[in-house]
């Protein structure tokens, strides 16, 4: 499976860096969202198997800014 995924990314890279990025994101199924937490708001991102949470923010806007920064980062 990993070899097949690597081949797909390599094939996409021959097309363009943007296509390789799109395929890589599709393979990792990166999800970025803001969720309500007990004392505020926080960023949650990652795949179903490897989920990570950001710091709890008092304001939802601050957590949304965290999510924008993470979503814009290349994998």
Quaternary structure of the protein = single chain
Number of helices, where a helix is a run of at least 4 consecutive DSSP H or I residues: 3
Biggest β-sheet strands, sense, barrel: 3 strands, antiparallel
Order of helices and strands: HHEEEH
Shape: elongated
Number of domains: 1
Q: Calculate the mean pLDDT score and round it.
A: 80
Radius of gyration: 15 Å
Distance between the termini: 19 Å
**What is the strand tally?**
3
Q: By helix and strand content, what is the structural category?
A: alpha+beta
The largest sheet has its strands arranged as: 1-2-3
Low-confidence stretches: none
Helix content: 40-55%
Strand content: 15-25%
Description:
- By secondary structure, the protein is of the alpha+beta class.
- It has one domain (2-72).
- 52% of the residues lie in helices and 23% in strands.
- The chain is built from three helices and three strands, in the order ααβββα.
- It has a three-stranded antiparallel sheet with strand order 1-2-3, covered by helices on one side.
- The longest helix has 14 residues, at 2-15.
- The chain is elongated.
- The relative contact order is 0.15.
- The model has no long low-confidence stretch (mean pLDDT 80).
Describe, in short, the structure shown.
The chain is α+β, with helices and mostly antiparallel strands and 75 residues long.
Comma- or semicolon-separated keywords:
3-stranded antiparallel beta sheet, single chain, 3 helices, 52% helix, 75 residues, alpha+beta
